[in-house]
Design a protein that fits this description.
Creatine Amidinohydrolase, Chain A, domain 1, 2 domains, single chain, 12 helices, Creatine Amidinohydrolase, alpha+beta
């Protein structure tokens, strides 16, 4: 299921072509995800920068720290791998000197939007342009990438199911976040594991903290009344997916049921517009306008969706102000949310493949209120939870 050497070579050819279209003498690739996208070689840069220099009529070269040179030789589509000593380095042996040696003074240079200021400060002699060339290549997924994301979506579904099945009234976050480990073990058992490109974040945001999508639960938090949000953000061999579900460990109040119903309808309206050629800003507007009309305008905190690929958040952006247009084989989320202060949030999120005339859902967990309301006491699950808490000294 891995990306082939031929596909990596094709990606580099396409990047060269984009550089030529912008009349660049060279394009400097420096972000970790971009280098992984172009080469398939996993690494962790820490404080040591890595570079690919792509030129239309010259060898494509990598510049890496000396301790990584042997590892990066595996890149299937670069002509040479150069190295610098370390970070920091003695004068004349660091990455700035090596990089400037490779660049020709006065050449037309393109750089990535994510270029760190530390690197930019050494490019003062160049009139460089910031261009999202690799990001543009990543928008539309190849058949191999879709297979990889479909695989990640399977494990995201699996993780959300494990979190919800492990839940009961009064369950601790410790018990729920421990489900990440069980999914990691399942991945290892089924397909192997690359520690640098595979990760699983699974758990639940308890009410009322679920009204703060980027709040941080503690392991001692308990799930009781209100809407909780179970989620999994994962990355499997470099490719990401997500699944999120609002669920309940006690019957929902009328106020929350109404918000839950409005969220589902906003999703339905957004889904009805998904197809190749659709405006991302229009999809966002239709979902948000509906929620405003329903009286939830003051309880919205974010856009309707975003893209997936190597990251859990990347283009295209289903957001007000976005100029992105959907194309077949893009991967997006649909996740309008309503956030009621001191009560909690309601949000489902799915990983979606855009097709010519519609979409395919890659995550499939139940979305209805009845299926997502836990009514049983789950005595054996409670006993297992008590043992987990005791193991870490938590009551």
């Amino acid at each position: 299921m891995a990306i082939t050497k031929q596909e990596y070579q094709s990606r580099m050819v396409n990047l060269r072509r984009k550089g030529e279209e912008h009349d660049l003498d060279a394009f400097l690739v420096s972000s970790k995800d971009s280098i992984f996208y172009l080469t398939g070689v996993s690494y962790e840069p820490f404080e040591r920068p890595f570079f690919i220099l792509v030129r239309p009529n010259a060898p494509c070269v990598l510049l890496v720290p000396a301790l990584e040179k042997g590892h990066l030789q595996a890149a299937p589509n670069v002509d040479a791998v150069y190295s610098y000593w370390d970070y920091p380095s003695p004068e004349g042996q660091g990455w700035p000197e090596r990089l400037l040696d490779l660049l020709k003074s006065g050449s037309s240079l393109g750089v990535e939007p994510s270029l760190p200021q530390e690197i930019a400060s050494h490019l003062g002699s160049f009139s460089y342009r910031t261009l999202p060339l690799v990001e543009e290549l990543r928008l539309v997924k190849s058949p191999a990438e879709i297979r990889m994301i479909r695989q990640a979506a399977h494990y995201a579904d699996l993780a959300v199911g494990k979190v919800i099945r492990a839940s009961y009234y009064g369950v601790s976050e410790l018990e729920l976040f421990s489900q990440s480990r069980t999914v990691q073990i399942q991945i290892m058992k089924n397909i192997g594991y690359d520690v640098l490109t595979t990760s699983v974040l699974a758990g639940a945001w308890p009410a009322p903290l679920s009204a703060q999508p980027h709040g941080v639960p503690t392991i001692s938090d308990r799930l009781k009344e209100g809407p909780h949000i179970a989620l999994c953000l994962d990355r499997v061999f470099g490719y990401a997916a997500e699944c999120e579900r609002t669920y309940f460990t006690a019957p929902a109040t009328e106020e929350v049921r109404n918000a839950f119903s409005a969220m589902l309808e906003a999703r339905r309206k957004a889904y009805s517009l998904i197809k190749s050629g659709a405006s991302c800003a229009e999809i966002d507007a239709v979902a948000k306008d509906f929620l405003h009309d329903e009286g939830y305008g003051d309880f919205l905190l974010h856009r309707t969706g975003h893209g997936f690929g190597l990251g859990n958040h990347e283009g295209p952006w289903l957001a007000e102000g976005s100029t992105d247009v959907l194309a077949s084989n893009m991967i997006i989320s649909i996740e309008p949310g309503i956030y009621l202060p001191d009560i909690g949030g309601v949000r489902h999120s799915d990983t979606i493949l855009v097709t010519d005339d519609g979409y395919e859902k890659l995550t499939h967990y139940s979305t209805d209120l009845e299926s997502l309301t836990i009514r049983s006491s789950k005595p054996f699950t409670r006993l297992r939870g008590a043992l987990i808490r005791r193991a870490v000294g938590m009551k």
